[in-house]
Every structure is written in C-alpha cells, then in structure tokens.
Amino acid sequence: MTELELPFPPSVNHYWRRVGPRTLISRGGRAFRSSVCAILAAQGVRPLRGPLAIAIDVFPPDRRRRDIDNLQKALLDALAHGGAYEDDSQVARLSVVRREVIPGGKVVVRIRRMRRG
Questions:
Q1: Helix, strand or coil for residue 92?
Q2: For residue range 26-84, what is the model confidence (pLDDT) as tens digits?
Q3: I want to staple 11 with a disulfide (CB 3.0 to 4.6 A). Which of 3, 70, 77, 107 is the partner?
Q4: Distance between CA atoms of 40 and 38, rounded to whole angstroms?
Q5: How many CA atoms lie within 13 A of 65 on its CB side?
Q6: CATH number of the domain residue 7 falls in
Q7: What is the pLDDT of residues 5-25, one digit of tens each?
Q8: Domain span at residue 94?
Q9: pLDDT tier, 117 (very low <50, low <70, confident <90, very high otherwise)
Q10: Cβ contacts of residue 65 below 8 Å, gap of 6+?
Q11: Helix or strand run (H / E) with residue 64
C-alpha cells in the first residue's frame, strides 16, 4: 500500500478554465499538479498496475460548505500525472471521507492494488 499526504486539491469548479473555444487546466490546477508530482518524485513512488482501491481522507482548510466529490478529479488526475498509477481508469474502488478542519487543509491518500478476480 502507498500512503501519501498531499496538499488540499482545488475544486473541480476551479480546476478548469475556458480560453476561447479551449478548456484548459487553471493556473491553480497546474500548481497543485506540480506539487503532487514533486511529492511523488521525492518519495520515489512508482506506477501501480492493475485495478486499484483508493481511500481519501479530506481535511478541509476551513468550515466553508464544500462538496467533497468536487475534489476528486484534480486529485486523481494529479496522481496519474505524477506516476502513482498509469491511468485513473484503474480505480476500481474509491472512498472519500471528510475529516476535521486543519488550517491550510490536506488530503491523505492510500492506494492499494486489488486482486483480480
């Protein structure tokens, strides 16, 4: 199992930007992705293959109302981009739990390979 402590991800509402006819990852989304890539590289994370189970504990930065399902896209894409796994289509099981508020926020991600079967 791989366990990672990562920065609080941007909401999907802030992850994408429209520039004319194109949809791009926002500046904040790119910064988040770069941070995740640096953390994965520093920890020597190698891509997992096969079906995966991912458990995410979300520690919000404040008490504002948030939909925790809006955080998954940026996080899962950054993990794939950083090499935790090849593609987020490998995720066969995903659980997300909101935890207590922590100044600055963070997420704790646990990734494990599932048995085929």
A1: strand
A2: 898 999 999 999 999 999 999 999 999 999 999 999 999 989 898 999 999 999 999 99
A3: 70
A4: 6
A5: 0
A6: 3.30.1330.70
A7: 999 999 887 777 888 899 888
A8: 2-113
A9: low
A10: none
A11: none
First-to-final CA distance of the chain: 19
DSSP 2-62: EEEEEEPPPPHHHHEEEETTEEEE-HHHHHHHHHHHHHHHHTT---B-S-EEEEEEEE-SS
Q: How many domains does the chain have?
A: 1
Cα separation, 96 vs 73, in Å, equals: 12
CA distance 73 to 57: 15
Radius of gyration for the chain, computed over Cα atoms and rounded to the nearest angstrom:
14
